């Protein structure tokens, strides 16, 4: 389970712990050993450098007695999914090259797809976490730009 699987598991564990007291251990590893690419395609060699061996673990609890000793508290979780967009689905894709070597290919659309995903995620998350003053300030600043017809400026 890679990095995106970790956020999904933390969300799932938090939801499972809501109705009753308990513990959940979420361990995330990112091992590229099974997807190590040994060919010559540059798009498929990059993941060998980026996705090496990394891991993280978190212990979640809903026990009210442990509340004071907790380092963090999950207030809300939000997941957005862009798998229905073909360019997002193919941004990082496991495939075979021309020689039949199996590996993960990263497309040139990866940065654009990531930017769209982050923008969508922040637009859904911001109203839930920002104070009302920041939301009103953003609304007025954006309205001012629209009314004064600044075409090249974006907030």
Automatic annotation (TrEMBL):
The keyword Acyltransferase applies. Keywords: Acyltransferase, Transferase. Pfam families: FAE1_CUT1_RppA. The keyword DNA-binding does not apply. GO terms for cellular component: membrane. Residues 1-141 form the FAE domain. It comes from the Eukaryota. PANTHER family: 3-KETOACYL-COA SYNTHASE (PTHR31561). This is Putative 3-ketoacyl-CoA synthase 2.
């Amino acid at each position: 389970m890679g990095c995106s699987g970790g956020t999904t598991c933390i969300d799932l564990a938090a939801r499972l712990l809501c109705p009753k007291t308990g513990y959940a251990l979420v361990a995330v590893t990112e091992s590229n050993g099974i997807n190590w690419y040994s060919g010559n395609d540059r798009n498929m060699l990059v993941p060998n450098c980026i996705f090496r061996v990394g891991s993280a673990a978190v212990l979640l609890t809903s026990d009210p007695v442990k509340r004071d000793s907790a380092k963090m508290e999950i207030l809300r979780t939000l997941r957005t999914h862009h798998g229905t967009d073909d360019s997002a689905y193919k941004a990082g894709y496991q495939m075979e090259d021309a020689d039949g070597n199996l590996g993960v290919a990263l497309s040139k659309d990866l940065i654009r797809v990531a930017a769209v995903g982050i923008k969508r995620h922040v637009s859904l998350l911001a109203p839930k976490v920002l104070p009302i003053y920041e939301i009103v300030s953003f609304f007025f600043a954006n309205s001012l730009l629209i009314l004064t017809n600044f075409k090249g400026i974006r907030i």
